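Hello Y.,

Per our agreement to keep a running log of every chain we model this quarter, I'm adding this entry. I've kept the format consistent with earlier entries: sequence first, then predicted structure.
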Amino acid sequence: MFRETCNVQSYKKMHKAKQNPDAPTLADIKAARKRIKPYILKTPLMRSETLSRELDTNVYLKLEILQKTGAFKVRGAFNKALSLPRTMQKCGLVAVSGGNHGQAVAFAATALGRRSRIFMPETTPPNYLNATRGYGAEVILGSSIADSFRQMEAYHDQDWVALHPFDDFDIIAGQGTLGLEVHEQLPEVSDVFISIGGGGLIGGSSIALKALNKKTRIWGVETEGANCMAEALKAGKVVQMPSMTSIAVTLGPPAASERTFSLAQKYLEGVTVVPDSEAFAALQFLLERSKVLVEPAGSCTLAALRRQRKNFTKKSHVVLVLCGGNVSLADVCRWRTQFGT
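Predicted structure for the entry above:
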């Protein structure tokens, strides 16, 4: 009975035809915003007087930590789910995730009345596992992220649709809606710092921001041990990372995709790679001075801005995208001991 309402084979043919290096346009991103508007929040953009004084420029925080599920990922998850053809509207949603993507897919599936099944490595922090289950997903643990991807392979011929965390046209278009918001909230924006996991958020946001103002500069950020895009740009091709060693667990795919790598080559000023110690120092600063708790995957943007401060003037308007806030108190305490701050 379920198979009659979930035409997997016809979707696979359509999806295969659509899987190419093409990236969404500004029109696609605007259409995504209209599609997902009932399900997500327009998150605040706040000027930081403290950081503006410290860095002698104008600094703003894009508080995507206040997004539903605590991270930007719901933008892409909803856009993908809502872009499926009518024959696929009853299909379950399946994904591989080490954290925020799984929560987003689970939340979107439940909100749309669908099932969800998320494959996660057994090293996933408990707060991510608990939240993903809390949003309604069945969580299946694997020995590693690679093992989780292998487990998901079995679902390709069943009544499930896989949502890739970043290498997907509709996912990138959904993530790009954040770029639209930044421009609308701060039309004079000159620079935007965005962290990179697989590159979907920075890719989609760059498309939107550059289309609206080609002079806006986009600065990518990674942490040491989770720097697949920096290595790819250095090598001139997609690079497979041997392992992920950074505390910024949500920045840890083994490689970017050809699509997101191409977008990074086209749009980014470069990628600043910061050590975990600086990402945590920025996390602690933001918690104490701005009263926001941010993942290292988001706080690293402040660490990168501090390293790049010579590139900005009193007339610059610099936005730090705080992309997620799903971090446990236990992790914060452990990192504080580890880095001695």
